[in-house]
Amino acid sequence: MRTAFDRARRALNFLELHQLDPSPAHFEFALAVICAPGSKLSEAVALYTDGGLRLTAAAVHMLVERYLSPPRGQTLDRRERTVARQAQELGTLTTDAHHLAEALGRDMGAFVAQSGGEQDNLPGAATDFVVRLSDAERELAALRSEVVLLRDNIVPMPLPEDTGRDDLTQALNRSGARGLMERADESGAGHVVLAFSVDALEAINDRYGRAVGDNILNAFAATLHQAFDDEELIRWSGNEFLFIIRELPASAARLRTEQALASFAARRLRLRGSGEPIGTVTASAGMAVGHPGAQEQSLILARSHAALAAGRGGNQLEG
């Protein structure tokens, strides 16, 4: 018991150190970090916070998604098994109820026979019971048919085909970027990782709706495509884009990044249909220069720099 209290105190101290809200999700994350100091999650946290950086809520969400969340296929499979089990239990229940109704019906039939087989000879309560029993049997039969249909229709839905591209922006998604990342690590050369995100996107979604937010993400991706027309853009998560650059000096990558941020901030975005101006929308960027074989560390560092730039007001490059 004392050990459990010690872990809880250490988890709360961890959250206080990083100024994170002590929500159940954050507390569970903190426990996962302090209880497994040699895990990949703990190593990623140590790298992320190198130099005194604090974790942000967005960084925690990213780390949980990457190191603690089960694969989507496992989650779907677990849900399908749960629904199938519940349907089977419901089917068993309706079968038992049907058998019970049949038994009661037989008993009532014997009672009717003993009464001379005449409906008029039955007490009023018994007559009402016969009617309700007949209705219940019909309802149970219909319910049983529905349960059988439900059980037969619980077939795992095939996952949509992964083309390696994000549907919205046509940037590479994570699976599509896997080969690019492997080649960068195997090339034996240094690399530059650039991470980008649109500033205050959640506020834009809250005010105008997610469709407008998607349009802004699409416009931002188009700006990045123009600035780095010879590089593959990666949509790493909802509001996170990456470049992994091998054949461009860090100074040139920095210059292009600054130009892309300035170009995006200068765009005059408007609502489709009404033409109402949205106002200035900016983006943040993070940069990390890595050595051969250290791409994952560079990626984490670039993303942390981008989060830091956003936290400092946005429309700037860190790293």
Brief description of this entry?
This protein is of the alpha+beta class and 319 residues long.
Mean pLDDT, all residues? 79
Query: What's the count of strands?
Result: 5
> What about the largest sheet?
5 strands, mixed
Number of helices: 11
What percentage of residues falls in helices of 4 or more residues? 55-70%
Order of helices and strands: HHHHHHHEHHEEHEHE
By secondary-structure content and strand pairing, the structural class works out as alpha+beta
Radius of gyration: 31 Å
The proportion of strand residues reads 5-15%
Question: In what order do the strands lie side by side in the largest sheet?
Answer: 2-3-1-4-5
How far is the N terminus from the C terminus? Answer: 44 Å
Topology:
Elements: H1 2-17, H2 24-35, H3 40-48, H4 57-67, H5 72-114, H6 124-153, H7 174-186, E1 191-198, H8 201-208, H9 210-227, E2 234-237, E3 240-245, H10 250-266, E4 283-290, H11 295-311, E5 317-318
Parallel strand pairs: 4-5
Antiparallel strand pairs: 1-3, 1-4, 2-3
Helix pairs in contact: 1-2, 5-6, 8-9, 9-10
Overview of this protein structure:
- It is elongated, with a radius of gyration of 31 Å.
- The chain contains eleven helices and five strands.
- Helices cover 61% and strands 9% of the residues.
- The protein has a five-stranded mixed sheet with strand order 2-3-1-4-5.
- The mean pLDDT is 79.
- It is an alpha+beta fold and 319 residues long.
